[in-house]
Amino acid sequence: MSIVIENLEYIYGEGTPFVKKALKNINLVIEKGSFLGLIGHTGSGKSTLIQHINGLLKPSAGRIAVNGECITDGSVKLKSIRQKVGLVFQYPEHQLFEETIYKDIAFGPINLGLSEEEISRRVASAMESVGLDFEKYREKSPFDLSGGQKRRVAIAGVLAMEPEVLILDEPTAGLDPRGRDEILEKIVELRTLKPDITIVLVSHSMEDIAELVDRIILMNDGEIKLDGTPREVFRNVEQVESYGLAVPQITYFMRALKAKYSGIDDEIYTIAEA
Ligand code: ADP
Predict the structure, then answer these.
(1) Which ipTM value was assigned to this complex?
(2) Is pLDDT above 80 for 256?
(3) d(Cα 33, Cα 180) in Å, to the nearest integer?
(4) From CA 74, how far away is CA 76, in angstroms rounded?
(5) Domain definitions of the chain by residue range
(6) What is the predicted pLDDT for the residue at 177?
(7) pTM flag (> 0.95)
(8) Ligand 1 mean position to 160 CA, how many Å?
(9) What's the pLDDT tens digit per position in 186-219?
(10) How many CB atoms within 10 Å of residue 260?
(11) Per CATH, the architecture of 3-273 is what?
């Protein structure tokens, strides 16, 4: 068991005229090593939920445990939660600031007080995970890279913390098709390199979600409305559409990717063909 969320509620602006219950009685168990997709239209509560998983927000009610440790009762330090649970924000490349790629990715591990040797190992491994050659890129400025490459540097910065849980908030937003495919390919590869890592992918792209994840959670108005495999969730066409979301078309790139890494899974393609 990796993440256990029990009776989670969150209220913004409590005691003000702008009070908003953004999460209502969320109960969710996310297994270790699973790949979960979180979908729902704008305002459904996705960001509020993921910010609880890495300790950025404190629940108004309920609790969360990560790998058996309660992270919401104040017993675990925020720094330690953030190390366990890596959150890649939307447009993470806006937070790049160091003069070299190496320094940018090393920033988190340096703050952990690790040895130089360990820092270097982690930076090299994180760069490899996102498909950036260590020797070629380590001394380059992150600002000389393409949009997709910058985003990969930002993701590497989170991976260098070696989190047990990786949450990606809209990792393909604003990228061209090539940048998108490269990022998704690296995420899928990451699972083969680190089978124990739990990944939560928040996306507006029903295609990205349908084709990659093992399980989908659909949120609406602060509640979980659907929970199942992509096939189960998207089979429910009318219900998915009633929450303002489109049922996806499957692309050939994703078929090839899925076939390469996890064996051909014809299951979900029958949705598109049905
Ligand atoms: P999503 O990520 O699915 O777009 P959010 O978690 O950002 O949804 O928002 C859930 C609800 O909480 C929305 O109604 C949103 O307007 C409200 N909300 C989000 N952030 C704040 C905030 N800082 N103050 C007040 N209300 C907020």
Answers:
(1) 0.99
(2) no
(3) 23
(4) 6
(5) 3-273
(6) 87
(7) no
(8) 29
(9) 999 999 999 999 999 999 888 888 888 999 999 9
(10) 13
(11) 3-Layer(aba) Sandwich (3.40)
